[in-house]
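Ligand-bound model needed. fe (ii) ion.
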Amino acid sequence: MLTSDQIARYHREGFLALPDFKSPAEIAALRARATQMVDDFDPESSKTIFTTNDQIRTVDRYFLDSATRASCFFEEEAFDAQGQLRQAKALSINKIGHAMHDLDPVFDAFSRGPALNDLALDVGLAEPQIWQSMYIFKQPGIGGEVGWHQDATFFDSTPVTVTTFWFALEDATLENGCLWVEVGGHRGPMRERFVRHGDVVTMEKLDATPWPDSRSAVPLEVKAGTLVVFHGLLPHYSAPNRSAHSRHAYTLHVTDGRSAYAPSNWLQRREDFPVRGFV
Ligand code: FE2
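Prediction:
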């Protein structure tokens, strides 16, 4: 799948952007299915808002249960002071998560196959295990910022192996909140760990190394169909979307089964719903 140059670059820089990894037809199928899921979602069933900016988050049942479901989460700015949606439901959802790849045939087809399996092997995941899927809407006008973080914070293992597969479903630009990464930053320390104790989650500070800023970070403006694969320790961020255009993306978080997945990670699987790979 990858050339030796690409593999070397991945290890050096911590990420790789692969244009045209997904076809327009594959993207259209996933987008249509996500639209359907949002149509079917009853907003009254949950007003959970997703934010990564709280140090300590009181997590509700809806969030914890989403580990094994396809749950819709609202944008932080979706509601007005009276608790009413500011815009249509379809333009108010932040994301769907976190098990669509194992629950829904359309998501399963998008999330698996020989090409992804070969890529996983090339970046060092000998026994890929797909823990989580997220469909991210980054809605026009209200799509929230996702502050600097490392995905290993949420998917700790020994050694750290979590790898993110980030699919652009629309063109990602500076205007609509594309990813920013610190090139080579995956060689730095893990700053934080998101730890679950029963039904409470806390963010533990592990290392005081500062996050990158606009001098050391680069924006990844990519076309729809591009797959960005990146190391779990690579610091990344995305700005709010104040543009008139959405920025849909889809992500998978994958560890290597040879590493020990931390029992304190918030997302765990039951024995009757085991984690699986790309094939
Ligand atoms: Fe992330």
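Residues 5 and 11 are 10 Å apart (CA to CA).
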